[in-house]
Amino acid sequence: MQITDEDYQHYKPLLFSLGYRLLGSVMEAEDMMQETFLRAIKLKEQNINNKKAYLCKMMTNRCLDALKSARYKREQYVGPWNPEPLLLEKWHAFDPSETLIKKEGLSIAYLRMMEHLTADERAVLLLREIFDFPYSEIANIIEKKDENCRKIYSRAKQKISLVEGESLNYEKNESMVHSFIKALQLQNMDALLELISENVTLYSDGGGKVNAAVRPVVSRSNVLALLFGILKKVPKDFNFEIKNVNTQPAIVINMNGTLQSILSFYISNDQMNEIYITMNPEKLAIFYRDKIR
C-alpha cells in the first residue's frame, strides 16, 4: 500500500478524530495517528483497495489495545476523569467536510459518557454513528460478524442515551454561559436556579496533581456552594474568556498568569445538567493546539 503525502493530508483529520473520540486524549490520538501512518508506509508490498478502511482498521486496533491496557490506569486515577479539552475556533468557521470538527460526538459530555462503554462498543458506535461506516466494513475493522456489530451498536446506544438530548447550538449555549457567568458574579440566585438543573453534577478533574474535588459534586445547592467558595479565593489577576472547546462554548480561566482550568457544560432542555472542571496540568498543557500538526 503506497501512502503519499496527499494521503497523509487527506486522512490525517479522519484518523485523529477517530483516535481522539476513542481515547479522549489529544496527545495519545496524535501518537496513534503517527504510528498508524508509519506502519502503513511499511506495507508497500500489500495490495490494498480501500485505503480509508484499512487505515481506520489499523488506527482502531491500536486505540482498542490502548483502551484495554488503560483500564488499570483509569481505575487508579485520582478523582473524576474528564477528556482532554480540544480548542477549536467556532466550528462553522471550518470546512464542514473536515471530520475533525464535526459537532456530533465531540462534546465533553459525549466523550465522558463514552467511558461507560467497552472498547468494542466505543469503536462500533463511532464508526457507525459518527463516521457512517456500513456494518460490513465495521465488522472487518474490529474482526467480528455483521450481526454481532449490530448488537454491539444497539447496546452502546442504550448506554449513551443520556446525551441524546444534548444541545449543540453554539450561539444559544454561548448565551447561556454568558448568563451563567453574570449570575455568578452578581450572586443572582433566581437566575442561577433557572440556568442550573436541580440535579446537576459537577466533575472536577485534578488528576491528583492539583487540589480538586475527588468525588462528583451532586445537586444544585452543593455545586453552587462549591463555585461560590472558589470565587471567594480567586487572586486579583484572575481572568477568563469564553473559547470554543470541543465545538461548544467553555470558560477558560487564567490565574497568576497561567491557564488554571477549563469549565465545560452539558446543556440539555435549556439547563446545565453537568459541569466539567478540568484542572489537571497535563491535560491543559497542549490545550492551545488549535489544530493537529
UniProtKB/TrEMBL annotation:
Any GO molecular function: DNA binding
GO BP, sorted A to Z: DNA-templated transcription initiation
Location of the RNA polymerase sigma factor 70 region 4 type domain: 109-160
Boundaries of every RNA polymerase sigma-70 region domain copy: 8-71
Superkingdom of the organism of origin: Bacteria
Pfam families, per the entry: Sigma70_r2, Sigma70_r4_2
PANTHER family: ECF RNA POLYMERASE SIGMA FACTOR SIGJ (PTHR30173:SF36), SIGMA 19 FACTOR (PTHR30173)
Record text on subunit structure and interactions: Interacts transiently with the RNA polymerase catalytic core formed by RpoA, RpoB, RpoC and RpoZ (2 alpha, 1 beta, 1 beta' and 1 omega subunit) to form the RNA polymerase holoenzyme that can initiate transcription.
Name this protein carries in UniProt: RNA polymerase sigma-70 factor (ECF subfamily)
Source organism per UniProt: Mesobacillus foraminis
Lineage: Bacteria, Bacillati, Bacillota, Bacilli, Bacillales
